[in-house]
Amino acid sequence: MRDDSHPETLTPSLDRIAAALERIAPAPLPAPDFAGAPAFVWHVEPDRLEPVPSVNRIGLDLLVGIDRSRDTLLANTRRFAEGFAANNALLWGARGMGKSSLVKAIHAEVQAEHESLKLIELQREDLPSVGRLLGHLRGAAERFILFCDDLSFSHDDQHYKSLKAVLDGGIEGRPANVVLYATSNRRHLMPRDMIENERSSAINPSEAVEEKVSLSDRFGLWLGFHPCSQDEYLAMIDRYCASYGVSVDPDTLRAEAIEWQATRGARSGRVAWQFFTDLAGRHGIRIG
């Protein structure tokens, strides 16, 4: 019979237990060399920031019809990169109208002037780990835009509480070198029918949804994106053609573009880009 009371017999068992625990909850990896890439993606299990050497984005000059939002967010981002006070921003509104494209394009524009400005993509499902992420960023020489794309919450979703660590900062305060840019199809980050349902069924309707609805109020900038008109849709395509040197008869281009959006049943910046991708391919133009 083995005597486990002696340390030399316990050591192999403890090593196996430690190895099993390491597999279940791996130790976080050290923070990367932030100078090595313009952007990073935050992952958990284990916690790590994965460098993104080349960000998938289009140029700021190709974004048409969102001039006011562009100018506002660009000015806010420049102030932040220069070390001055800046607001968190919520870009909300119609699908496919350039919300996430604008964030990435503005980062590229300002990062060309300030190399220390980094973009970090944070998935909604990883919001509970945001405190640990801030721990990596706090005190770093670089400045960081946390980017959470397509952000929204259901009535029983508790992830929104983690978001307050970025917006309010808790007892430590949000790091001065971190700002959050989020995109959402919803102005209040949760479906309107859920807001109305909770108000109608709660004992105190005004308090039932106040915590969730007020989450969007914590963003200093609200930038609205609305469906584009046909003229704006066609102007987007004209800009793409001019930028990439695609020459098409104007009447033919207009007819094909309108037919394309009709078959899609939608008209947006995304649909315009998809049409242009097809058009460029047919004309042997590389856009990648």
What does this structure look like?
This protein has 288 residues and is of the alpha/beta class. The protein folds into 2 domains: 34-225, P-loop containing nucleotide triphosphate hydrolases (Rossmann fold, 3-Layer(aba) Sandwich), CATH 3.40.50.300; 230-282. The protein is 45% helix and 13% strand. It contains 11 helices and 7 strands. The protein has helices at residues 7-24, 67-81, 99-111, 130-137, 159-167, 192-201, 205-208, 210-217, 230-244, 250-264, 269-282, and strands at residues 39-43, 48-52, 89-93, 117-121, 143-148, 178-184, 221-225. The longest helix has 18 residues, at 7-24.
Keywords for this entry:
11 helices, 2 domains, 45% helix, 288 residues, alpha/beta, 7-stranded mixed beta sheet, Rossmann fold
Could you give the topology of this structure?
Blueprint: H1 7-24, E1 39-43, E2 48-52, H2 67-81, E3 89-93, H3 99-111, E4 117-121, H4 130-137, E5 143-148, H5 159-167, E6 178-184, H6 192-201, H7 205-208, H8 210-217, E7 221-225, H9 230-244, H10 250-264, H11 269-282
Parallel strand pairs: 1-4, 3-6, 3-7, 4-5, 5-6
Antiparallel strand pairs: 1-2
Helix pairs in contact: 2-3, 9-11
Summarize this entry quickly.
With 288 residues, this protein is of the alpha/beta class. It is built from 11 helices and 7 strands. It is 45% helix and 13% strand.
* Helical residue percent band: 40-55%
Instruction: Enumerate the spans where pLDDT stays under 50 for 5 or more consecutive residues.
Output: none
CATH architecture of the largest domain: 3-Layer(aba) Sandwich
What does the overall shape look like? Answer: elongated
CATH class of the largest domain: Alpha Beta
Give the percentage of residues in beta strands: 5-15%
Q: Name the helix and strand elements from N-terminus to C-terminus, one letter apiece.
A: HEEHEHEHEHEHHHEHHH
Q: What Rg, in angstroms, do the CA atoms define? A: 24 Å
Average pLDDT, rounded to a whole number, is 84
Helix/strand/pairing category: alpha/beta
CATH superfamily of the largest domain: P-loop containing nucleotide triphosphate hydrolases
Main beta sheet strand tally, sense and closure: 7 strands, mixed
CATH topology of the largest domain: Rossmann fold
What's the helix count?
11
Strand neighbour order, sheet with most strands: 2-1-4-5-6-3-7
Could you give the count of β-strands?
A: 7
